[in-house]
Amino acid sequence: MPSLQDPLLVVTDLDGSLLDHHTYSWQAAAGWLEKLKAHRIPVVICSSKTSAEIKTLQTGMGLEGAPFIAENGALLHAGALGQGQQPDEPVTTLLGQDYAAIREALETLRRSHGFKFFGFGDVNEQLIGEWTGLAPHDALLAQQRQASEALIWRDSDERMTEFVQELEARSLALIQGGRFYHVLSKGSNKGAAVRWLLSLFRRNDGRPWQSLGLGDGPNDVLMLQAVDYAVIIRGYSKTPLDLGPSQKNVYRTAAYGPEGWTEGLEHFITSDGLE
């Protein structure tokens, strides 16, 4: 079990995990965020949210300059680390196709096959606010997408199967989040992004970095499989999270959201590290 003295990377989902599913509040986790910051343990946000949304949240949480993973792993930002001992390492990396290419593919499929869905690029910030509960300014940040599209599916399950096949033929993938489906390049995911970031940390200082991940939704499974210690936060998804037999260190919380986030850290980080 890790302690606060170990080289530890905390990787966290946002909605339904560090952020309350209904209110988007993170205050219940404030004590642990301060504790991790005091011990120089990086808190890496790994979310379906955009880079613009994450940077705003980092400022509020006191996590400015920390690495983050945006748009379900389609965008990687190395933060201050990318400007440190590895100056040739890209600070921001897009994996696969950019937003314009993904939107073009989706619009072509809708015209040619008649699929029924609405993406963030199809609507204004007012409607996104209705879907998410976000204020108009925050909804605009959610529209600043760089490497994926969030959408609401309005068609049948049978048509969904056909839609996924058409996406795969275009080197795209569909994943299910807590509120929306997300279309991004095939091979881009939270797990691959976490492994990339861990390798970067280990190359930078040679220390045996451990990782602890926290998430609540189906799109967090690959992230939780990529870390040493996995916290499955109690959530509202109808699909139970199953990490498979390869992930041994798994804890399921009784509490939701940031309360569950705190519960998970208290379970895995040893009491010796709290002294």
Describe this protein's structure.
About 2% of the residues have low confidence. Helix 4 packs across helix 5. The chain has nine helices and twelve strands. It is 35% helix and 20% strand. The protein has two domains: 174 residues, HAD superfamily/HAD-like (Rossmann fold, 3-Layer(aba) Sandwich); 87 residues, Putative mannosyl-3-phosphoglycerate phosphatase, domain 2 (Threonyl-tRNA Synthetase, Chain A, domain 2, 2-Layer Sandwich), CATH 3.30.980.20. It is α/β, with parallel strands linked by helices. The longest helix is centred in the last third of the chain and has 16 residues. Helix 1 links the parallel strand 1 and strand 2. Strands 5-4-3-2-1-10-11-12 form an eight-stranded mixed β-sheet, with helices on both faces. This is Mannosyl-3-phosphoglycerate phosphatase. Keywords: Hydrolase, Magnesium, Metal-binding. GO terms for molecular function: magnesium ion binding; mannosyl-3-phosphoglycerate phosphatase activity. Pfam families: Hydrolase_3, S6PP. One of its GO terms (biological process) is mannosylglycerate biosynthetic process.
